[in-house]
Amino acid sequence: MGGGTKLVALLASLLALGPLLGCKQKEAPAAPRNLLLITVDTLRADYVGVYGRKGNSPTPAIDSLAAAGVRFSQAWTTAPLTLPAHASILTGLTPAHHGVRLNGTHALAENVPTLAEELASQGWDTGAFVAAYVLARRFGLARGFSVYDDRIPLPAYAGARLEAERAGS
């Protein structure tokens, strides 16, 4: 894949952002711009107020953010696993092209550019706050983030590190 194609793929992934990444530009543009990517593993859209939950919404913060910004109504994943799917979101590439195919056994290669690296190179402050061990920095997704908070305790009940997680709150 050529450099231009990689950049297009990377920027295309920006458009595909549906629901962890908070960014704002360092040099103030005419109007402040922010980008927030929230990903939630195993959450049905119809449970989220802005996506159709009837009655009292259990997701008022997400609903409020969506009401004040751009919300995507359709999204597809390249993989049914957390790490490969996030690698695709952050690179614009499929698992066959970025090489991350399983949770906990593969890491994103250093030579695969990420959305956070591209945003950082253009002056954006970037931060990620992850809640699942399979997204820990050791798997390569932290590149380009000025803050990558992956402090996830291993609870006594977890049979393996892959089960470790922390509450989104």
Provide a descriptive summary of the structure in words.
The protein is α+β, with helices and mostly antiparallel strands and 169 residues long. The chain has one domain (3-163). It contains 5 helices and 4 strands. It has helices at residues 3-15, 60-67, 82-91, 95-98, 115-121, and strands at residues 21-25, 34-37, 124-129, 147-149. Strand 1 (21-25) and strand 2 (34-37) form a beta hairpin.
Task: Write a short abstract of this structure.
The chain is an alpha+beta fold. Helix content is 25%, strand content 11%.
How many strands in all? 4
**How much helical structure, as a percent, in the residues?**
10-25%
How many domains would you count in the coordinates? 1
Indicate the low-confidence ranges by residue numbers.
4-22
- What is the tally of helical segments? 5
Shape: globular
Enumerate the strands of the largest sheet in spatial order, edge to edge or round the barrel: 2-1-3-4
Largest sheet, described in full?
A: 4 strands, mixed
Overall average residue pLDDT = 80
Topology, element by element:
Blueprint: H1 3-15, E1 21-25, E2 34-37, H2 60-67, H3 82-91, H4 95-98, H5 115-121, E3 124-129, E4 147-149
Parallel strand pairs: 3-4
Antiparallel strand pairs: 1-2, 1-3
Helix pairs in contact: 1-3
Features:
about 170 residues; alpha+beta; four-stranded mixed beta sheet; 5 helices; 4 strands; about 25% helix; about 10% strand
